[in-house]
Design a protein that fits this description.
6 strands, disordered N terminus, Rossmann fold, single chain, about 30% helix, 6-stranded mixed beta sheet, 8 helices
């Protein structure tokens, strides 16, 4: 799945806090906290809303993210409204050149748990055929009825990253997505099994950064939190 970018010098060391331009770079943001009732269940790929109280409380976090992100870049979002709304709230706080141009890419949606959507947390383990991952609700190979496994998510996110890296070569790409999809992106960048990538913590409104340089992927940051105060 690896492709070659032409005539891009490989930046081995980053000696300056400011990341260099003309690099194929992805800024991956997990959506904000969802509303309280949804948090009581396994909502997965259900289209649940954000928590309005949390949006007001975490306004400084959106401002911090807006300051951290590149002003010029292509914006993408999962089709779920919690991701789209998060992207919109961040854009409100910043002076972005492509403001409000948020492209929807369904390949960055959260893992679908199919028939298990909406299950209360205390009842979920009883549905599993395999032992859950220590830091995820199910193992990478567990595939819920009419759903998908993390292995499936890894495949679709990996293809999406390679496609967008080709389309937006030497540019910044901002993607507002979900915990499972961002872990899959990190697994792709590191060429590791998705089961191992589930060990990454990806919190709400966190930022992770990956790059593709001369066909090789590297990780710049994982779960970088904005300043909320």
């Amino acid at each position: 799945m690896t492709r070659k970018n032409k005539n891009i010098p490989h930046v081995h060391f980053l000696d300056d806090p400011q990341l260099p331009d003309n690099v194929t770079r992805f800024w991956l943001i997990r959506h904000a906290v969802v509303e309280e009732n949804a948090r009581k269940t396994m909502y997965g790929a259900l289209d649940v809303a954000l928590c309005e109280k949390a949006i007001l409380k975490q306004k400084n976090g959106y401002m911090s993210l807006a300051q951290r992100l590149p002003k010029k870049g292509t914006w993408y979002s999962s089709p779920l409204k919690r991701a789209i709304r998060t992207a919109e709230e961040i854009q409100k706080e910043g002076d972005f050149l492509n403001k409000k141009e948020i492209k929807i890419d369904s390949r960055f949606i959260e893992q679908s748990i199919g028939d298990w959507h909406g299950t209360p947390h205390d009842q979920f383990t009883a549905l599993l055929k395999r032992s859950p991952h220590p830091f995820w609700s199910l193992s990478a190979s567990e595939k819920p009825p009419r759903g998908e496994s993390i292995l499936d998510v890894y495949a679709r996110v990996g293809h999406a990253l390679e496609d967008l890296a080709d389309e937006n070569e030497r540019q910044d790409t901002i993607i507002v997505s979900h915990g499972g999809a961002i872990r899959a992106a990190l697994a792709h960048a590191l060429s590791i099994h998705p089961e191992n990538a589930l060990r990454f913590t990806i919190q709400n409104l966190s930022l992770s950064i990956i790059e593709r340089i001369n066909g090789a992927w590297r990780v710049i940051a994982v779960n970088e939190l904005p300043k909320f105060n």
